[in-house]
Every structure is written in C-alpha cells, then in structure tokens.
Amino acid sequence: MAATLEAESTLTDRYQTTVPETVRRALRLRKRDKIRYVIRPGGEVVLTRANDAEADDPVLGHFLGFLAHDIATHPERLQSLSSSFVKRVQSLVGEVKVDLDAPLSEEDE
C-alpha cells in the first residue's frame, strides 16, 4: 500500500496559495502547468494535474466551467439517478462493452 502524504498551505489576502513542494513533485507540476480541482459532494477536493487534451478543446472547457459554476452556486440542484433511469439506460445499451482506455480508431479521432 502506498504511503499517504499530506501537505498544507495558507491562503493570502487575495485567496492565492503556493502549491507545496511535495504536491508539485507528486503531480510532476512545473511553472505555468494547470491544476484541476474536483469538488465531491461531501466537500472533499481532489487536486490533479490538468490533462492538456482538455485544454485543447475550448468548447469542452467552457462547458465544464459552466457545469462547475452551476454546481458550486446551486448544489441543491444535484440529484442522484433513479434506479428506473439506470435500468432504462442498461436496457438500451444491452451487453455493449466499452474499453475507455483503448485508443480511438482514425475515423473516430
């Protein structure tokens, strides 16, 4: 089992902080790299190095920004999926297996 590392930083009056060295090393961050924050329902925040592929698509970036803003300003709108909806989706896709890690074919690219 990998060891858990912890680090702290302090917010300035302008809400800025320095990413601690242990975090920078763990995420292989360099100057000008982007950081991605995922805010989970319980208030936990997951910080990761942003994927450059996401930054290449301005439409996706704006859409994800819109979603993040809407979730942050209206968390009461979040709803879990109903079991009937999940069953309906499963009935539509049947036994289709998708490997999300498989590379795309040239025609899908």
Query: How much helical structure, as a percent, in the residues?
Result: 25-40%
Shape: extended
Order of helices and strands: HEEHHH
Q: Over the alpha carbons, how many angstroms does the gyration radius reach?
A: 19 Å
Could you walk me through the main structural features you see in this protein, from its secondary elements to its overall organization?
By secondary structure, this protein is of the alpha+beta class. The chain contains four helices and two strands, in the order αββααα. A two-stranded antiparallel sheet has the order 1-2. Strand 1 (35-39) and strand 2 form a beta hairpin. It is extended and about 50 Å long.
List strands and helices in order, with pairings:
Layout: H1 21-27, E1 35-39, E2 45-49, H2 52-55, H3 58-73, H4 83-93
Antiparallel strand pairs: 1-2
Main traits of this protein?
alpha+beta; 2 strands; 4 helices; 109 residues
Structure in a nutshell:
The protein has 109 residues and is α+β, with helices and mostly antiparallel strands.
